[in-house]
Amino acid sequence: MRRPPPTEPLRRVSGPALLTLLILGSGGATAQDVPAPALQEIVVEGQHEGPRLWRVQRGDHTLWVLGTIAPLPKRMVWQPDTVREVLRNTQEVVPAWPAYGIGANPFTALRVYIEWRRLQKPPDSLPLRATLPAALYARVEALKARYDARDGKLEQMRPMLAARQLMTRVFDAAGLALHNEVQQSVLQLARAQGVRVHQDKLRIDDPVDVLKDVSHTPLDREVACLESIVTLLETDVPTMQQRARAWALGDVATLRALPHTDERTACIAAVSTSERVRSLIARAQDDWLIAVEDSLRRNRGTLAVQSMDRLLGPQGALAQLRARGYTVEGP
Fold first, then answer.
1. Which residues of 142-157 are buried (b: 16+ CB within 10 A; e: fewer)?
2. The whole model's pTM is what?
């Protein structure tokens, strides 16, 4: 069996990966005995560019922003002609999230790996059925029976990891890909065209303690995270399919119109009981605006990538840039 690199475990649970690990918990949803809908796989044929880019300007300095969403159609072929054209007049690309660093100490890396393995174990080593309320467990079992009846691993997972496992299975059946590969394609295009990547590094001085904090998440919060994911999978997947299709077709009007809440709320709240984790998430989110403004000041042309959730809305990044005196135009 291949042993993962020592830093791989932390990538899954720190900074942006912490959000990825726990993504799509539906905040504010209430538990209901709603049967899981019969899903038809979303199919988006042909090549698609996604939405047009936003343009942020001050003087003769321009920032182009590509908004992304997740999940996207898993068989979608992205055609980045607009991005290629923008890169010809761009000096720098700003990714949506900073990279991270835990230092080069091999003993720290080993301790991170050991703590990551501990994090996989359920609280008190109890099976999922002994951890969850009976009504919630029945809903979990219904989703499992419908989408992956042979999954024997789910029962031995802690609730927040079981949530991600369920989500992956249902998304697969719905024709949705949990991982967003658009940014990776943008960075590959930038490097191929010799454009700098502004990759800030989020320094994590206490990675083992971060993992310990996550592993000590109160059980009731983990259960709330799982319940929110179950409700999401029971009720909201058709809307997520519509959002994915709208993104592929560049239909920003539909993206704005479709109902959407911050689905990550319950699961982020679950792991944010420690000040260390809250600070890490806040720093990862704040770094993007700092990097964007820095790049705008230094370069005539900049291309940035960011999720639609963080771009749009009265408190979104575009509104913040507009409030700081930039001209913002977009689809």
1. bbbebbbeeeeebbeb
2. 0.77
Number of C-alpha atoms within 13 angstroms, CB side, residue 267? 28
Domain ranges of the chain: 8-329
- Annotate 21-51 with three-state secondary structure: HCCCCCCCCCCCCCCCCCCCCCCCCCEECCC
156 secondary structure, DSSP code: G
Residues with Cβ within 8 Å of 221's Cβ and at least 6 positions away in sequence, in order, are: 269, 270, 271, 273
The residue-averaged pLDDT of 224-236 equals: 90
Dihedral, CA atoms, 217, 33, 164, 282, nearest 10 degrees?
Answer: -50
Instruction: Quote the CA–CA distance of 84 and 13 in Å, as a whole number.
Output: 32
What is the length of the chain?
Answer: 331
**Predicted confidence (pLDDT) at residue 288 exceeds the cutoff of 80:** yes
**CA-CA distances (angstroms) from residue 82 to 49, 86, 317?**
8, 6, 22
Residue with the bigger pLDDT between 68 and 118: it is 68
Cβ atoms of 258 and 9 within 8 Å: the answer is no
Give the CA angle between residues 317, 321, 326 to the nearest 5°.
155
Question: 67 pLDDT band (50/70/90 cuts)?
Answer: very high
Encoded tokens for 49: 């560019």
